Amino acid sequence: MGIETSCDETAVALIEGNTKDLKRGVTVIGNIVATSADLHAKTGGIIPENAARMQIKSILPVISEAMNIAFPNISDSAQIKKIDAIAVAFGPGLIGSLLIGVETAKTLSYLWNKPLIPVNHLVAHIYANWITKDKQSDFSKNNLVPKFPALALVVSGGHTDLILMKKHFLNSKNDIEWIGGTCDDAAGEAFDKTARILDLPYPGGPSISAEANKYLERNESKHLNLFPRPIINSSDYNWSFSGLKTAVMNYKREHETANISCTSAEIQEAIVDVLVEKSIKAIKEFRPKSFILSGGVAANSRLRRVFVQRLESIKMKTDFHVPEPKYCTDSGASIAAAAFYNPKFRRWQDTTGIPNLEILGET
Ligand code: KG4
Ligand code: ZN
Questions:
Q1: If DSSP codes are grouped into helix, strand and coil, which group holds residue 123?
Q2: What residues does ligand 1 touch, defined as CB less than 6 Å away?
Q3: Blockwise average pLDDT, block size 10, the chain, 363 residues
Q4: Which one of 40, 53, 166, 172 has the fewest beta carbons within 10 angstroms of its own beta carbon?
């Protein structure tokens, strides 16, 4: 069972996998995500106290619903027997939200006598790429999982990190390397903050993307270079997104009647461009067998398409992996998948939430 409550999603999933055949990936057998995004849309962004209160309301019903989907028509005690371990996101995230999942997982671990596996939320985003089957949506990836060495780009609301993985996280810290990341705002944050400037609803990524798609359906995407692409040609693998806010703010002030769909397409293209170009540069240098895209921003259809096109154009033998859109954003399924491949058990007494956990912090 995977439990995820680090922000505004209360998410629980049950997965199954064969520990003797790790190359097949894992199957999701029950997955529920309750989101309080509508509440945060009213305030134009997340108020942590509101998010935590919604976590408390949702956590038990979401656990019970996920179990009923995974194990229908059997008693509660029979359902509990089927669970091997409980995994929970213990950071990074909002402390009030995180603690709801962490304390619930600790209590269930004690009550049900199940081992507990604390999971780094950012690592879980990467492991969404090991979900190869979903019984609820009839989705199947033919057991295709990433191969090592793999280069993973995590693009979420709070993080933008490029990681070189030679093995699973469990095996050796020396085989996982941080290659680069953002100097300021995260890619998702750039979507969220520019959406707010354009008065588009929270969360900004899907809003900008929907507006941009309206524009792209009518127009070619070739000339979308209104906004700057900071440090795109620098020799490192870093990004900087904070200047985009200022550029969009200035543009809006100078063009009061600017078309929102067109401006959204320009914003999206500026973010996609720098993410793709820096990643392609890293792929050329490190020559990974697989490139992994992950995190909420990976749900962006334009980003997914441009990655596929650019990877084809460089004609390298790097295969491309991106989760089903619903497993790009926060889910209990990715927490459980990360735990399946990295079963680092910890006593419930020694487990707590760590709001500022880094991707290569405790994993
Ligand atoms: O991974 P995630 O669900 O939560 C965090 O760990 O932060 O990512 C949320 C971020 C938000 O910034 C949201 O605007 C962005 O992912 N996002 C998108 C899309 N869907 C979610 N950004 C661009 N296009 C999307 N379709
Ligand atoms: Zn996330």
A1: helix
A2: 7, 125, 156-158, 188, 191-192, 203-206, 209, 295-297, 299-300, 329-330
A3: 96 96 94 92 89 96 98 97 98 97 98 98 97 88 89 97 94 86 97 96 96 90 86 96 97 93 96 98 97 98 97 94 96 98 96 95 74
A4: 172
Q: Which residue has the tokens 């096109």?
A: 309
Ligand 1 midpoint to CA 36 (Å):
14
Question: Which pLDDT does position 324 carry in this prediction?
Answer: 95
Tell me, in angstroms, the distance from the centre of ligand 1 to residue 300's CA: 8
154 Cα–ligand 2 center, Å: 9
User: Hey, which of 156, 198, 213, 303 would you mutate to test ligand 1's pocket, going by the most ligand atoms within 8 Å of its Cβ?
Assistant: 156
Q: Return the residue whose CA atom lies nearest to atom 14 of ligand 1.
A: 205
CB-based burial, 259-277: b 16+ in 10 Å, e otherwise: ebbbbbbbbbbbbbbbbbe
Q: Among candidates 323, 265, 332, which has minimal Cα distance to 296?
A: 323
The pTM of the full predicted model, rounded to 2 decimals, is 0.96
Closest residue by CA, ligand 1 atom 22: 205
